[in-house]
Amino acid sequence: MIKEVTAQAPGRINIIGEHTDYNLGFVLPAAINKFTTVTLRPSEDPNLCTITALDLGETATFDLRDPKPMEPGWVNYIMGVAAELQKSGAQFPGFTASFSGTIPIGGGMSSSAALECSVAVGLNTLFDLQLPMDTMMYAAQMAEHNFVGTKCGIMDMFASMHGKTKQAMLLDCRSMEYEYFPIDLGDYQLLLLNTNVSHSLAGSAYNERRAACEKGAAIVQQKFPEVTSLRDVTLSMLEACKDVLDPLVAQRCRYVVAENDRVLAATRALSTGDHVQLGKLLYETHAGLQHEYEVSCPELDFLVAFTQQRPQVLGARMMGGGFGGCTLNIVHKAAVTELIDEASAAYREAFGRDLTPYEVDIAEGAKVLSVS
Description:
alpha+beta, 6-stranded mixed β-sheet, 10 helices
């Protein structure tokens, strides 16, 4: 009988393809070398779960027989995973868990998905549930929907589960087919600049964007019956429906349709080693997120604009759901230190707060670290 399992799951970056996943489009994520690690043991009480957030110094309990969203908010991610695994048919008793992590909270690197996926993988081993990876992945997504209140797509959980070292993943969020693309930037590297402006995707703005996209797709479908989601919509279709689309809905939809095209263009740029083109696509994405989808914030816009006059930076954009978090930058390796110093000073002067830089490497997906 297994007494203890330690599992970990990574955060993720998304090279390009923001807010396309819940519209069944394309995304290009990669797992990174920042992790959530959880240790799980069977509980003495077959119905009770006791969870400790080591970094916060907080402990919470819940009853497996009656899982309902509760305070503190972080416990809902774990409770939600357990409840959704049970809904899928898995049977297991109560457990204790403690977790900590190196993924910045609210930084747009999917700390929540990493927590959910590490718990799912750990429970699967602790209780020998023999669950397929996809069952665990979807349980993590449904935990967000039903216990956290964020109607997120599948990208974050997919990246945390399926990550491979030095590989990005082109994921078709409708068919769930995926393909790995090597990340080899030559003399350049990825750099994250964290605004330290925290965001909350459970807020109304995220769900409002999703609702607008679904409304737009439904209206376009009336004229073009082959449309089942924004994934099927083209810019010419949107133009043909402009008289019946609310202007703001049309604006949101235009961003998503164009972003899907940019994702596919980015995979071509990676395949051919055209890093200049990849950088241009990142800048285009940020402009769309800033002006069309309107999920940026002054701090993110400042950092992206700061890089645009610097030839050592090929591209930059806000990353994640928006309203805070990090910018993703493609920077010449020889210029990283200088850029961090200059950006930090300018950011501090502009906003009176410090940014946090992260040099990230592309890492493996969720896995069990130890069993005893």
